[in-house]
Amino acid sequence: EWTPESILKQQINYIRNEVKQERVVCALSGGVDSVTAAVLTYRAIGDQLSCIFVNNGLLRKGEAEEVLKSTQKLLGKERVIYVDAGERFISRLRGVLDPEEKRRIIGKAFIEVFEEEAAKLGNITYLLQGTLYPDVIESTSVWGPSARIKTHHNVGGLPERMQLKVLEPLRFLFKDEVRTLAQQLGIPEKIVWRQPFPGPGLAVRIVGEVTPERLEILREMDYIIFQELSKSPVFRKIWQSFGVLVPVRSVGIMGDERTYEYVGVLRAVLSEDGMTADWARLSYDTLDVIARRVVNEVKGIGRMVYDITSKPPATIEWE
Ligand code: XMP
């Protein structure tokens, strides 16, 4: 039987039978999958679970604080270890332009930080992962992993390296089922409905080189986009919406001064699973407010454009 209650019960039993007295570590990202996996596991085995939340310095405005606060509330303060590793990630990205190179650097730095923290815990047997059914299918797809356009599995190889067994209590669920389960577990709406966010974060939303200055500009632009769209009734239909920084300068005029600033892009797409996507038909008024607010309020952006390309042929992210 496939009710939220029965899934919950089954999964709790499954985790208890599998883990027994061993200890489990989890990498929290703040997304609905990892938080649901963690809360579920916490219900099953309590303080045998430890979670590590790595702030890679590439998160959206306010996200790190928010994720930390809400996960500590759900799991208990001592269950969530927070690592502020922004400096390490950002210094390694200096001078790097290639998107796949950025992904490799971020993936490698993540594994390092995670291993260091897990080593401090000692005596861990399992790595908890919020893998969903579509991820399971994708990795055994007939096209094979080489058919992937972008290397998404940033932490691939982690369990083997650390010699950990994998615990994947969500591996038979689809996204909508995870959201139902999350609600059942009392996870706040804000997390339940959080949009997917790529592991390499804002680094793949700044075309070319990532710098602290560009990150700051992108965060402010992205935050205005979030504020305006989250008010709109179409927000829950949107798969992902965000800003992209194109570090090409464009001429403008403000007051009676000539400006010469970066181009900002608004991206908002509808999708079922991220494999294909269509650009969201936002109202002209919404587009207008966003463009005005960004150019007026964000120092560094002089022009806003709306990306009206579907996937395929474009991808959702710009890199
Ligand atoms: P694309 O840009 O390929 O994105 O159309 C499809 C979905 O995957 C997300 N994405 C990533 N997720 N690591 C991730 O964890 C990555 O490197 C990565 N690149 C893209 C993207 O946000 C969208 O949901």
TrEMBL record:
Keywords: ATP-binding, Glutamine amidotransferase, GMP biosynthesis, Ligase, Nucleotide-binding, Purine biosynthesis. It catalyses: XMP + L-glutamine + ATP + H2O = GMP + L-glutamate + AMP + diphosphate + 2 H(+). Residues 2-194 form the GMPS ATP-PPase domain. The keyword Ligase applies. One of its GO terms (molecular function) is GMP synthase (glutamine-hydrolyzing) activity. The keyword Oxidoreductase does not apply. Its EC number is 6.3.5.2. Pathway: Purine metabolism; GMP biosynthesis; GMP from XMP (L-Gln route): step 1/1. It is an enzyme of class 6 (ligase). ATP binds at residues 29-35. Homodimer. Catalyzes the synthesis of GMP from XMP. This is GMP synthase [glutamine-hydrolyzing]. The chain holds residues 195 to 513 of 513 of the full protein.
